[in-house]
Design a protein that fits this description.
Layout (H helix, E strand, L loop, with lengths): L17 E2 L10 H9 L11 H14 L3 E5 L2 H12 L4 E6 L3 H4 L4 H6 L2 E5 L9 H7 L9 E8 L9 H13 L3 E6 L2 H8 L3 H5 L4 E5 L10 E5 L1 H13 L8 H13 L4 H15 L5 E3 L8 E6 L1 H13 L2 E2 L7 E4 L6 H15 L2
Parallel strand pairs: 1-11, 3-4, 3-5, 5-6, 6-7
Antiparallel strand pairs: 2-8, 7-8, 9-10, 10-12
Helix pairs in contact: 1-11, 2-11, 3-10, 12-14
Bound molecules: pyridoxal-5'-phosphate (PLP).
């Protein structure tokens, strides 16, 4: 972990917090910052930024698709994708717990006039093929026109079964729908399953990948798909205000992350497992064993412990999720092996004083 020693997130700063609220809190390391400084730049709206182009090319190649497009955020990348796949009055079918439905302020409906049909999503994030098929509308003037199936992987840290995703995509394609994957944490799924990115991407028509989660960049997402889709997405990005100029500074961080921070996601997965296992036998604290797959674990304290536990941890330098009744904790490159020990020690002190 020595390459992270210079990160302001990891240094021996007494005021530093170990932050488990999300993997979005990562700070660029010194080496990543250097890559940003060294990145050759141009005006990307003129399609003249070599670093942005290199990042897009690299991800397209990694995922086995024709093209890619750099976005300021995952929300915008997902929204542009939905706007590519659906016109006004058309419909996306989506898991009710997925980010595109639940956490993007229904941008597709609000800005795009796209109807959304949410499907039941089980605890591990899976939707059923029968539910999806039943949601596809007949050609009837009373209905919107079903155009897109929107999937997600990972969902709350849970890796989606690739055979099931493929079956869902095939069933959707057979009905004339396209398939989009919100792969905010796509590489966590790749690393966990030891499969290639191209294999996971193969059934999908478009994939949105976040660089600013576990991959550790300050900002940026990339939409990957066919040449035709990406050409159309570029116009959507412009409409949404996402055309950026010398964005190679951000793309430089992305290229660095693809080079250096993919395989190390396994370290976050291991840290997650170590902490969750250490907490499993503490009294009055439940650890969700099912949703313990990649870089997240979920704990359920007694209701009366919720606020005091959080206050105790914060007081001792560890921020944990605020969600109730299950608190989400997320591991990332800003948390060292030493921090993992510290986290475990603090939980034990709270529960076994
Ligand atoms: C973070 C995230 C996004 C997009 O997030 P931005 O904050 O807009 O970059 C999309 N989907 C999922 C599942 C996410 O976790």
């Amino acid at each position: 972990m020595s390459q992270y020693a210079n990160s302001p997130n990891v240094q021996g700063n007494p005021n530093r917090m170990i932050d488990l609220r999300s993997d979005t809190v990562t700070q660029p390391t010194a080496a990543m910052k250097q890559a940003m400084i060294d990145a050759p730049l141009g005006d990307d709206v003129y399609e003249e930024d070599p670093t942005v182009k290199a990042l897009e090319q690299r991800l397209a190649t990694l995922l086995g698709k024709e093209a890619a497009l750099f976005f300021p955020s995952g929300t915008q990348s997902n929204l542009a994708a939905l706007l590519c796949h659906c016109q006004r009055g058309e419909e996306v079918i989506v898991g009710e717990k997925y980010h595109t439905f639940l956490h993007e302020a229904r941008g597709a409906s609000v800005l795009g006039g796209i109807a959304m049909h949410p499907l039941p999503t089980n605890k591990l994030g899976q939707i059923e093929i029968a539910d999806m098929l039943a949601a596809i509308k007949p050609d009837d003037i009373h209905d919107p026109i079903s155009k897109l199936l929107a999937l997600e992987n990972t969902v709350s840290g849970c890796v989606q079964d690739q055979a099931h995703l493929t079956a869902l995509a095939e069933a959707a394609h057979a009905k004339g729908l396209s398939v989009h994957l919100d792969g905010a944490r796509f590489f966590n799924a790749v690393v966990k399953q030891n499969k290639s990115a191209a294999e996971l991407a193969a059934p999908m028509d478009s994939i949105s990948i976040c660089l600013s989660k576990g991959l550790g960049t300050p900002a940026g997402s990339v939409l990957v798909g066919s040449e035709k889709l990406i050409r159309y997405a570029k116009r959507q990005r412009k409409i949404l205000g996402g055309g950026m100029r010398q964005s190679g500074m951000l793309a430089g961080a992305g290229l660095y992350a693809l080079e250096n921070n993919i395989e190390r996601l396994a370290v976050d997965h291991e840290h997650t497992r170590i902490i969750a296992e250490a907490l499993t036998n503490l009294p009055n604290l439940e650890v969700d064993q099912e949703r313990l797959q990649t870089n997240m674990f979920f704990i359920k304290p007694l209701p009366e412990d919720h606020a005091p536990l959080q206050a105790f941890m914060t007081e001792h330098g560890v921020r944990i999720g605020w969600q109730q009744p299950w608190m989400r904790c997320v591991l990332h490159l800003g948390v060292s092996a030493q921090d993992v020990e510290q986290i475990i020690t603090l939980f034990k002190r709270y529960y076994q004083p």
